[in-house]
Design brief:
This protein is mostly helical. It has helices at residues 3-20, 29-43, 47-55, 59-63, 65-75, 80-89, 92-101, 108-140, 147-153, 158-179, 185-205, 208-228, 232-252, 254-261, 279-294, 308-318, 322-326, 333-363, 366-378, 388-406.
């Protein structure tokens, strides 16, 4: 098969993977698309070239090191079924970087196409969820327009759905800043319309962290853009006024107001077992139990890939915490990795985020820096790699961005 045709097929399959990331796991669309991409890579040959490309990409071994450590952690886990299930959900951490790092380097225009394919998938997922919510309201009088009720209609947890939409909006904001002089009026209106629609959907999902980040990052992007044009003072005034308006606007939105209200719910609210409405107190107990469990396991290697729940369960039970009954994970990627894989695992994970983030900021690679910063921050409130959505999203775009910006041309 001619090399040009191979490249076009590879690029097309990357577009399909990106498009299917926001689909429900029950459809297996993401899994099938990754398998097809893997099979094409496997039968495309050129193994000597692929090996040479890996040798030129030492970051590949850092990116995949966490998964290799998870395999090692399987052998000293007591809960082998849980460890195996986690390994299955995270196979993309190994195979997607392997496929993308050993394939031909993508061009900037192709990177844009891949991300916009993902955005198109998100658009389809939001329309599908809203359509089902409208149908259920009209046919049964049931309200599925908010939070997890809405996201479940698309088969995506609200935290991941909000993360996807936040990334999409921020990418389009950066794309507009970078390409504004070359974009037609139709494209500008389309990008602006999709951003506003996604922002409205994020409001319905009521995810606090991503809702704050999408505004904060956007304001910083525009401030930096004005700084480069020598209009820093004007930018500071504009960002300050906009920030104040947004702050008071968020306080008047019922859905977000209720979500933030639970953060300041009086701590004197009686603990009746299971859970309090004060989310600060919930997190204090939740993360406190994980820190207590971390102190009891091997500091270097952790408890094992599948044993985090086994370790934290006694503390949850002692507090009669809701997490005991619903088997909640850490809701913090760093604590989860520390408990499972110890300092070794945490070091690999933090390195895989901070090294490329530092390189991206240093070289002013805004798209990649935004992606890494967004994922790193969201990792403080969610265990993002515990679901296929988070694992594929991270491993795919991390490999795509890094291979474009830092992999040398053949």
């Amino acid at each position: 098969m001619p090399s040009l045709n191979k490249n076009k097929i590879h690029q097309f399959l990357l577009l399909i993977v990106a498009f299917t990331i926001p689909t429900p796991p029950s459809s297996h669309a993401t899994g099938y698309s990754v398998i097809i991409l893997g099979l094409f890579w496997l039968f495309s040959g050129e193994w000597r070239t692929k090996i040479m490309r890996l040798k030129k990409n030492p970051m590949f071994f850092i990116f995949t090191g966490l998964y290799l450590l998870m395999i090692f952690g399987y052998f000293y886990s007591e809960d082998k079924p849980a460890a195996k299930f986690l390994l299955e959900k995270n196979t993309s951490l190994l195979f997607l970087p392997l496929i993308i790092f050993t394939s031909n380097r993508l061009q900037k225009r192709e990177i844009h196409h891949i991300v916009f394919s993902f955005i198109l998938g998100c658009l389809g997922a939001t329309i599908w969820a809203l359509s089902k919510a409208v149908y259920l309201f009209q046919s049964k009088g049931e309200n599925y327009f908010f939070y997890n009720d809405l996201s479940n209609l698309a088969g995506i947890h609200s935290s991941y759905f909000s993360l996807f939409l936040c990334f999409s909006i921020l990418f389009m904001v950066l794309y507009f800043i970078e390409q504004s002089k070359e974009l037609s009026l139709v494209k500008i209106i389309s990008i602006g319309g999709i951003c506003l629609y996604f922002l409205f959907f994020m409001y319905l999902l009521a995810s606090r962290m991503t809702f704050i980040l999408v505004f904060l990052f956007s304001l910083l992007f525009f401030l930096y853009s004005l700084y480069k044009r020598g209009r820093l003072l004007k930018g500071i005034v504009l960002v300050t006024v906009t920030g104040i308006i947004l702050f008071f606007s968020l306080g008047s939105l019922w859905n977000m107001k209720m979500r933030f209200y639970y953060l300041k719910y009086p701590e004197s609210w009686e603990w009746k077992g299971a859970q309090t409405k004060n989310e600060w107190l919930n997190r204090k107990v939740h993360w406190g139990c994980y820190l207590e469990s971390i102190s009891k396991v091997n500091l270097l290697f952790g408890s094992g890939t599948g044993d985090s729940w086994t370790e934290v369960m006694p503390c949850f039970k002692r507090w009669d915490y809701a997490g005991y009954y619903s088997k909640l994970n850490a809701h913090n990627q760093y604590l989860e990795i520390m408990l499972r894989l110890g300092l070794l695992g945490l070091s690999l994970w933090v390195s895989s985020l901070l090294i490329p983030l530092w390189l991206s900021v240093k070289n002013k690679y805004s798209y990649y820096a935004m992606f890494l910063a967004l994922f790193s921050i969201c990792g403080f409130t969610e265990t993002l790699l515990d679901r296929q959505h988070g694992a594929v999203f991270y491993s795919f775009f991390n490999a795509v961005f890094y291979s474009f910006y830092f992999s040398g041309k053949d």
